[in-house]
Amino acid sequence: MSYPLRVKLVDVGPRDGLQNEKQLVPAAVKIELVHRLQAAGLKEIEVTSFVSPKWVPQMADNAEVMAGIARQPGVRYSVLTPNLKGFEAALLSKPDEIVVFGSASEAFSQKNINCSMAESIDRFAPVVAAAREAGIFVRGAMSCTVGCPYEGEIAPERVDYLAGLMKGIGVQHVGVADTIGVGTPLKVQRAVEATLKHFDINQVSGHFHDTYGQALANSLICLQMGVWQFDTSVAGLGGCPYAKGATGNVATEDVVYMLHGMGIETGIDLDQLINAGQFISDYLGRPSNSRAGKALFTKRLTS
Amino acid sequence: MSYPLRVKLVDVGPRDGLQNEKQLVPAAVKIELVHRLQAAGLKEIEVTSFVSPKWVPQMADNAEVMAGIARQPGVRYSVLTPNLKGFEAALLSKPDEIVVFGSASEAFSQKNINCSMAESIDRFAPVVAAAREAGIFVRGAMSCTVGCPYEGEIAPERVDYLAGLMKGIGVQHVGVADTIGVGTPLKVQRAVEATLKHFDINQVSGHFHDTYGQALANSLICLQMGVWQFDTSVAGLGGCPYAKGATGNVATEDVVYMLHGMGIETGIDLDQLINAGQFISDYLGRPSNSRAGKALFTKRLTS
């Protein structure tokens, strides 16, 4: 069994994480979080979303946050863009990468954005074209690739279909997301295999939620398939909107702990990462959702 | 990659779990927990320990608990026996299996029982002989096979050495335990490989702690090696004595969720298992440590 020598983690905490937290977090705190993440060695950070503040008030400060970051050379700053209007607003903030999205579940697509999977991807075509024209890298987030809160289990054929649609409009990289955390290793493997029909292994990342505690096992099976890019969220920021009180995004700390333990390089300083996680958990007034983060922080206090 | 078709889980919650909980739990509650575990389909349960009540007051009711269980055919009831005196007391309770133990760390052995690894195993020789004479199966729990709270990382050679000592005194099965949860997949793989020099794959089980969130990833790598027996603890009972407030034993619910998701049979009814976990968590007055347990319980409440 061979494993990648090096893994790249994209911390999605400031966007995917904080968007799903109940509390509104001030721009200054978000900026400080981004600064702490880049100080810890993260080379890509999903910073914010250029979505209507009517729908997502948590991200209303998108331009302010992007403007406030002291950018570090070699770090990429990505933003979510739900439509052309969002993309045009995002453009002013000079992101390195934009994220467009689609669901592998028709029911989720209908409930969430009131259109079919194909329609939702079609609508992104001008965004992708404009981004590529502007030299901005385009990542596609594929949600519900294993299970859907409305439809239940999702067949790999639906992932194949969605990945094909994403490829068709010029998306350059896709994330295979288990949005509700129901995936287990073999189901995740099949979702990734379906994606690999359209994208190269270097164009695919894993995005797992720890709602059922499965995220590291799912990451391990991906590593064994050669996947070397993952989305993670510092301190496990972001709950699960479909199971209140449950865990959402896998914690960056837990993934880094596993990778370093396996001798896989990440370029991340775990101690500094734990500080970043503790900073935002303290701000939110609750313990970190990272098991490794909590254990190492407790150890630090008692030693 | 092939996986076992069927996995056997040994729920160690009543013993290993409750022994490490601060609260004293009455015998009646322990008995009810065992009944709920067997109703959920567990085929082996580590019930109690015949250790001096001076050292482990939580297990002072060992004989009472063993006597109170309405035993179910096909279910095995095991007990921990730290010495010959404990074994003789245990014998009266007619266990199907006894558990002896040793550490792969010299420092841990010295600090914990004030003797060397070899001495500690030697002391168990008469216990093992007496048990086998009485037709009782002997399992050996090998602690600190990946890391030790005093020594740090443990080399696979120490596991090889300990497994050889266990084999030498007639132990019939060994559990490879990551007592402090610091293990990651490749380290665990090496510990299991060292054990397999002395024991057949059918004589080896994995025993993982989720302190750093790694238990399911470690279980997955074991499954890939052919290991099909694991110790788990309902609701993740049992904290980590070396990192206060941190998670201890991996939750049975999380492991069952993964196995069933992978199409691996366990004979366990996850719904009933969650009830068992909720029962003991409610008694202890705190949420379950199982992520799958919490997510499924929340889902049940809201659907």
From TrEMBL, chains A, B:
What are the EC numbers?
Answer: 4.1.3.4
Superkingdom of origin organism: Bacteria
UniProt xrefs under Pfam families: HMGL-like
Where does the sequence pass through the membrane? none
Q: Please give the PROSITE patterns that the UniProt record associates with this protein.
A: HMG_COA_LYASE (PS01062), PYR_CT (PS50991)
The pathway that the record names for this protein is: Metabolic intermediate metabolism; (S)-3-hydroxy-3-methylglutaryl-CoA degradation; acetoacetate from (S)-3-hydroxy-3-methylglutaryl-CoA: step 1/1
Q: Which reaction does this enzyme catalyse, per its entry?
A: (3S)-3-hydroxy-3-methylglutaryl-CoA = acetoacetate + acetyl-CoA
Show where the Pyruvate carboxyltransferase domain sits.
Answer: 7-274
Name a GO molecular-function annotation.
Answer: metal ion binding
Please name the GO terms of the biological process aspect recorded for this protein, alphabetically.
Answer: ketone body biosynthetic process; L-leucine catabolic process
**UniProt keyword terms in alphabetical order:** Lyase, Metal-binding
Tell me the protein family, please: Belongs to the HMG-CoA lyase family.
Protein name per its UniProtKB record? hydroxymethylglutaryl-CoA lyase
What does the organism's lineage look like at the top?
Bacteria, Pseudomonadati, Pseudomonadota, Betaproteobacteria, Burkholderiales
